[in-house]
Amino acid sequence: MRKKLRVLTLAVAFVLGGSLAVYADGPKTQQNVLYQVSTSNAIVIGAFDGVMSSAEVKRHGDFGIAVADALGGEMMLIGGVWYQVMPGGKVQAADDALTIPFGMVAYFQPTISFDVGPTTAYQELRAEVDRHLPSRNLFYAVKVEGRFAAVKNRTFAKQSKPYRNQGAVTDEQEIFEAKDTEGTFVGFWFPDYIYGVNLPGLHLHYLSKDKQQGGHTLDVAVASAKVTIQPLYGYEIALAHSPEFLNADLKSDKTADIKKVQGR
Q1: Alpha-carbon distance 79 to 102, whole Å?
Q2: Alpha-carbon distances of 161 from 69, 71, 75, 118, 127, rounded to whole Å
Q3: 234 and 21 in contact (C-beta within 8 Å)?
Q4: CA-CA distance, 89 to 81, in Å (whole number)?
Q5: pTM above 0.85, yes or no
Q6: Rounded to a whole number, what is the distance in angstroms from the first to the last CA of the chain?
Q7: What is the pLDDT of residues 180-204, one digit of tens each?
Q8: Integer angstrom CA distances of residue 22 from 26, 123, 137
Q9: Does 3.30.1330.80 match the CATH number of domain 2-262?
């Protein structure tokens, strides 16, 4: 049962059993809520054990990004199908039983669209997305479809216990670069006040049209693309119940570590 504390413009609910929900005033339906598993601070300090199956996460959206259990591959959810980028760069449909330690999903119903390109770097694409947002205080699901002059993606190999922090693992990330590729970026934009549970700004994962390439995006040069965006008025976090999360020190500022991990 949810116990909600309501004020004029914000409702915050703590859900017994381990989740937190925050809703801004606006249409509150399953179709415009961002659902997140765990927090960025937790994953960066090494809480890599999967806490929810990919099938269960899909109950909360058909569009999203994640990382696999034990950091074993970057993931993207497109059209209700989870894709997993394996070591070596192979892309495969993820098993429903695969567990996720950190990820976020939504039901994608965009209301904003625009064309972009050419651009020479990821920061130019980020600036274009920022320019079209109606408010910097909401969450957004973002899709970018088209042709790209260059894309740089990464994935991780599955880790073994005892886990190191993700900053150390990032030094061993596998990076893949593609030229003149067609495909889709999926991801989310987070507001500045979200430090600690996620990183502000745009976070994208890529899947090529032929489903042979993908991963967490480190850089991109757009040839020509269409961007579609959905404002999200709710934010729900399913808190991890793993020992790594329950015993983690999440008080300190992990922003520099998270930026390193995300390649910013």
Answers
A1: 20
A2: 12, 11, 21, 44, 39
A3: yes
A4: 18
A5: yes
A6: 40
A7: 999 999 999 999 999 889 989 999 9
A8: 12, 29, 13
A9: yes
